[in-house]
Write a structure and sequence with these properties.
The complex is a heterodimer of chains A (475) and B (587).
Chain A (H helix, E strand, L loop, with lengths): L1 H9 L25 H19 L6 H15 L8 H6 L4 H11 L7 H12 L14 H11 L4 E2 L2 E4 L8 E5 L4 H4 L7 E5 L2 E2 L5 H8 L6 E7 L7 E6 L1 E2 L5 E2 L2 E4 L2 E3 L8 E6 L6 H14 L4 E5 L8 H11 L3 E8 L4 E6 L9 E6 L5 H12 L3 E5 L7 E8 L4 E12 L12 E2 L4 H15 L15 H15 L1
Parallel strand pairs in A: 12-13, 13-16, 16-17, 17-20
Antiparallel strand pairs in A: 1-8, 2-3, 4-5, 4-6, 6-7, 9-12, 10-11, 14-15, 14-19, 18-19
Helix pairs in contact in A: 1-13, 2-5, 2-6, 3-6, 10-11, 11-12
Chain B lengths: L2 H4 L15 H4 L14 E7 L2 E6 L4 E6 L4 E7 L4 E6 L5 E6 L4 E8 L2 E9 L4 E6 L5 E6 L4 E6 L2 H5 L3 E7 L4 E7 L4 E6 L4 E6 L4 E7 L3 E8 L5 E9 L7 H5 L4 E9 H5 L10 E4 L10 E6 L5 E5 L4 E5 L7 E4 L4 E6 L5 E6 L4 E6 L4 E7 L8 H9 L12 H4 L9 E2 L11 E2 L21 H12 L7 H11 L16 H13 L17 E2 L10 E2 L22 H5 L12 H11 L3
Antiparallel strand pairs in B: 1-2, 2-3, 3-4, 5-6, 6-7, 7-8, 9-10, 10-11, 11-12, 13-14, 14-15, 15-16, 17-18, 18-19, 19-20, 21-22, 22-23, 23-24, 25-26, 26-27, 27-28, 29-30, 31-32
The chains are: A alpha+beta (475), B alpha+beta (587).
């Protein structure tokens, strides 16, 4: 259960993006089909060049080739080639790899499309490529990039569909999205998209129908599970800005209570994820909160995941009055130091960070930068990140993209990377963690309907943070 | 010292300009002001008359604010950069940017009369009378100095006189007195430096840097405890992507407050106890904030020059409200009650009256007809237009401030990759320095213009006409004058420096007269992507630029030669270094 809720939150943005496995455009006539050996050899060369160039600790080209060929033979249940490793290890240039593929191409009944797909998915097995992701098709890469920039274009929904469900369900219609604005509700079942029935389609087939370019129109026919009547949602696909900074308690759709205790000038800010929009959200909040006399900040980064290095450094920079934030070592082992400028929001506010084992990627980087510069003390549980930088790397020739480990973060203090050890460790049992998460997700509006808790949970980590801020805000 | 300047510029007969006599004004048919480019940049409200300084025309237009129309216009000088009134309102002070003069005008009702003149440092751009009414200070952009002028001398000897010239470590523009003190805050015209000058002692008391550039507005808040500063911030770590521009990560436009106490304490951190209020919102950029004024109840009015709007924040609380006024609002004057704001729209050649309470535009007052614009004139409008960028966050001038440079680093794709921020180059004299970009990769200036518009500013696709006009405008930009022109006292040293420049082989890359060349060279510097070949930036006006090198690693010219020993063939003796610097600052 804990993991289910986490998955909902962390991948809220990405959820509608995970979709179609890499598939080549089906050729119209078989005569148009390109030679599969040529396709595989070209694809292998481009991908292996990219991996060798960008990956932090890349496999050898030969290792990648061995994986690809194994996968190729597995596709038709053929015996693997004898002494494959030895034979491949002597290949050097592109011509030799191509010749090897040509000489050993399976002569079988399996469609060449399937063989190409198997070869392609095998290629990345030995790299740092994220599990099961393989080659990312261009449209998905574009959507992922849009989401990473918080410039996701679509209908603004999160979908769920299991194999046994007949229809896809809108688990969340996001507050700023076209679907919500058109009257979509959490829990709606989608019967039709543009008049086409969704019954029995796979999730990726549904997503393909829903996805489209900015400014184009799409309509859903939906109904609530317990209602008979259907509703029609007419929408124009557009940007769906996701909020990344939340308050303590939602008062209405666009109003928040930021103070945990109304009589204490301490604001609670929770970063659910860190995107390029986060600094702008924080800047805007600063103006409001300082007007209201806030003197201390609890920055809740528990379960804050997602986000690249770039938004992490922009966010940390915004919160720091200078200093080294962190260093990033890239694939060529160049080390780049990232320093904050003198500008700093909430400059005169004492700040406490909340972290836990689910404080990941950008969230963990921001926490590390603030802790290392003594900008904030950390309360909670130790984080678990390994300091990897995962990047979406585009491939030439419209091949799409791959997600690779392209670098390693080194903390500003000490050597290399180490997870965050809170200055004040406050552990939580499973039940408490669960009720805190449920509360948080109910506030951010990503909770499935009907399960929203009404009262704030007992939160010993937050209580510790408020205790640490007591003295600072009294002055 | 400065005897040439402190000597009063005696002009024989002081030209008397009696203008807008009530009898003329009262006539039924107003004389039609001639068609010309006026370019209003400063406003002074005295009684019911609004005096408008027209920079390009060198004239002052007079508006009767009750009637809401122009009642006269008088020729004052060649290039009228600023206008201010003494506290009693009896005198107006004007500065001529071209002739490097301060002009004192006596005012009687709407009528102005030239009463005296004095020569000041090159390119005076602002003038502020002190509260005592006996002195004023004039900031000279390229001379990098602040002249302290004795206005009372006028009564004694017929002309104002220079009491002292204070050298500044940056090019100044905006200035404001710290109330109830003898101190003036002077702000950097391009970057983010702030100096406090003690006028009584004639010294620079402190120089501090804000994370800022293009400081264009200074005003005290209603309590007098905080100085409000309108400016921009360029983030070197942000990328020139549509997303970073959209979210306000690349350029942020601010009104920042700095505490009076910290300003007056030379070693205090100016940022402590201050606030920064962002202007604009996601999807609503506010490129190039400019003139700033505050009403008695603390309502701030800021001209947003790049987007043709003014921002109003009532009683120092809540969100900004935005009022569309026109093309390029740069200066704001408020009536005594703080109900009406008069806004100078520089490119529209008009004054717009804004209802501060109702937060809406009231009327436009046209200063006169405009002639047909040249291609370069059109290019100038585009250069200062933030509407050419994605969601109006920045104009060309946001980084290349007035064609020069904000001295900051920007991470754009002109070198082909992100992660390699580089110093913004000055465009003054750009037509003589092909090829362009740090890597010298652009042979046609038009290509650079298009590239900047589309992949740095991320605006709508540039039209051929826009690119043509912008290029025409860029070709009108001349290099800044030398920081220190040759004088009799420096002639010998300067000649020795020039010879050293040649002997050290500097001229093989920095070839006179443009002090650059077409090739790229490895001079032992590399960027984050390992690029080592750079096109040598032109050294014309190099004393006016800085910091130096592609990544601003050298703060001063001395650092370039001493700390970095930039391409020196042999060690320089101390005297040689002094001579070489003398020469560099003279080109």
């Amino acid at each position: 259960m804990l993991h289910r809720i986490l998955a909902l939150s962390v991948f809220a943005v990405a959820f509608t993006i995970t979709a179609a496995p890499y598939a080549d455009e089906p050729a119209k006539k078989s005569a148009d089909k390109p030679d599969p050996v040529r396709v595989c050899s070209e694809r292998f060369w481009i991908v292996s060049e990219t991996v060798l160039d960008r990956e932090f600790n890349p496999p050898t080209r030969q290792e990648m080739f061995v994986h690809a060929v194994r996968s190729l033979f597995a596709a038709e249940n053929a015996e693997p080639l004898p002494e494959l490793e030895r034979k491949v290890s002597v290949l050097v240039n592109r011509e030799q790899f191509t010749a090897f593929l040509k000489d050993n191409w399976p002569t079988s009944m399996v469609e060449s499309d399937v063989l190409v797909a198997s070869f392609t998915s095998g290629m990345l097995e030995g790299s740092s490529n994220q599990k099961d992701q393989g080659l990312i098709p261009p449209a998905t890469a574009k959507a992922m990039e849009g989401a990473a920039a918080n410039r996701y274009v679509g209908t603004g929904i999160q979908l769920r569909k299991s194999a046994k469900d007949a229809l896809p369900e809108i688990t969340v219609a996001f507050p700023n999205g076209p679907a919500r604005k058109a009257g979509g509700k959490n829990g709606d079942l989608i019967l039709e998209v543009d008049g086409v029935s969704m019954e029995g389609l796979t999730l990726s087939e549904v997503v393909d129908r829903i996805r489209g370019e900015e400014g184009t129109k799409v309509s859903f026919t939906v109904r609530q599970p317990d209602e008979k009547g259907t509703r029609r949602l007419n929408m124009t696909r557009g940007p769906v800005p996701f909020t990344t900074v939340f308050g303590y308690k939602r008062i209405s759709e666009d109003r928040w209570q930021y103070r945990v205790n109304p009589d204490q000038p301490i604001a609670y800010l929770r970063l659910e994820t860190i995107l390029p929009s986060t600094p702008a959200e924080l800047r805007k909040l600063e103006a409001t909160l300082l007007d209201e006399g806030v003197k201390g900040i609890v920055l809740d980064l528990r379960s804050a995941g997602g986000g690249d290095v770039q938004p992490a450094l922009l966010t940390a920079d915004e919160l720091l009055p200078g200093g080294l934030m962190f260093k990033v070592q890239d694939a060529r082992h160049h080390i780049k130091e990232y320093r904050a400028d003198k500008d700093c929001i909430f400059r005169d506010c004492k700040t406490v960070l909340l972290v836990n084992e689910y404080t990941q990627s950008a969230g963990e980087l921001v926490a590390a930068a603030l802790q290392d510069n003594d900008r904030a003390v950390a309360v909670g549980q130790a984080t678990r990140g390994d300091g990897s930088v995962i990047s979406l790397v585009h491939l030439p020739n419209d091949l799409g993209a791959v997600q690779l480990r392209t670098g390693r973060v080194e903390r500003a203090k000490g050597k290399g990377w180490r997870p965050i050890t809170p200055d004040h460790v406050v552990s939580l049992d499973q039940d408490k963690s669960m009720s805190i998460l449920e509360w948080q997700h109910a506030q951010s509006g990503t909770e499935p309907p009907g399960s929203a808790p009404k009262d704030p949970p007992n939160d010993p980590q937050l209580a510790k943070a408020l205790e640490l801020l007591q003295d600072a805000v009294k002055k | 010292m400065h005897s040439t300047r402190s000597r009063q510029a005696f002009r024989g007969i002081v030209a008397v300009l009696l203008i807008c006599l009530p009898s003329i004004v009262g006539q039924a048919a107003d004389p039609q002001p001639p068609a010309r480019l006026r370019r209003p940049v400063a406003l002074v409200l005295a009684e019911k008359w609004l005096f408008v300084a027209n920079r390009t025309a060198g004239t002052v237009s007079v508006i009767d604010t009750d009637k809401g129309r122009v009642i006269g216009e008088s020729e004052v000088c060649r290039k009228l950069a600023d206008l201010a009134a003494t506290p009693d309102g009896k005198r107006l002070l004007a500065v001529d940017e071209d002739a490097a003069e301060l002009i004192v005008l006596n005012r009687s009702g709407p009528a102005l009369e030239v009463a005296g003149r004095v020569t000041v440092g090159q390119s005076p751009v602002s003038v502020r009378p002190l509260a005592d009414g006996r002195r004023c200070t004039v900031a000279s952009l390229w001379a990098r100095e602040l002249a302290i002028v004795d206005l009372a001398a006028q009564d004694r000897s017929g002309q104002p006189s220079i009491k002292k010239v204070v050298e500044l470590p940056f090019s100044p523009r905006q200035q404001i007195q710290v109330p109830d003190t003898d101190k003036i805050v002077v702000a950097d015209a391009f970057g983010g430096k702030i100096a406090v000058v003690d006028v009584a002692r004639g010294i620079v008391e402190s120089v501090r840097s804000l994370p800022a550039h293009q400081i264009r507005g200074l005003a005290w808040d209603a309590t007098g405890k905080h100085l409000l500063i309108s400016h921009q911030v360029l983030h070197a770590d942000a990328h020139t992507t549509q997303a970073d521009i959209h979210w306000g990560n690349l350029i942020v436009n601010y009104v920042r407050s700095v505490s009076r106490a910290n300003l007056l304490k030379a070693d205090a951190d100016l940022l402590e106890g201050g606030r920064q209020l962002p202007l604009g919102d996601v999807g609503h950029g506010t490129g190039d904030p400019a003139g700033l004024a505050v009403t008695v109840d603390g309502t701030s009015v800021v001209a947003l020059a790049g987007v043709g709007e003014v921002a109003i924040r009532t009683a120092n609380k809540g969100d900004w409200a935005y009022v569309v006024v026109g093309q390029r609002p740069t200066a704001v004057a408020l009536d005594a009650a703080g109900r009406r704001a008069f806004v100078a729209d520089t490119f529209a050649d008009r004054v717009t009256v804004v209802d501060v309470i109702g937060k809406k535009k009231d009327i436009d007052i046209v200063l006169g007809a405009q002639p047909k614009l040249s291609d370069a004139d059109h290019g100038e409008l585009l250069f200062y237009d933030a509407r050419l960028s994605h969601e109006n966050w920045l104009s060309c001038s946001s980084c290349h401030v007035d064609g020069h440079t904000n001295g900051q680093l920007n991470d754009n794709l002109s070198d082909g990759s992100f992660g390699t921020p580089k110093r913004v180059l000055s465009l003054l004299g750009v037509k003589d320095t092909p090829p362009w970009a740090w890597n010298g990769g652009i042979a046609d200036l038009k290509d650079q213009v298009r590239k900047s518009m589309e992949i740095t500013m991320r605006g709508p696709k540039a039209t051929d006409q826009q690119v043509h006009d912008l290029e025409a405008f860029l070709k009108t930009l001349v290099p800044p004058p030398p920081l220190r022109a040759e004088t009799a006292a420096t002639r010998d040293g300067l000649q020795r420096g020039k010879e050293l420049f040649r002997q050290q082989g500097c001229t093989s890359c920095h070839v006179p007269p443009a002090y650059t060349s077409a090739k790229t060279y490895d001079v032992g510097l590399a960027d984050e992507a390992g690029t080592k070949l750079f096109n040598p930036p032109s050294l014309r006006g190099v004393g006016q630029a800085g910091p130096y090198f592609h990544d601003n690693r050298a703060a001063t010219l001395e650092d370039v030669l001493v700390a970095h020993r930039h391409q020196l063939k042999k060690e320089l003796a101390r005297e040689e270094l002094a001579d070489l610097l003398l020469f560099l600052r003279s080109i």
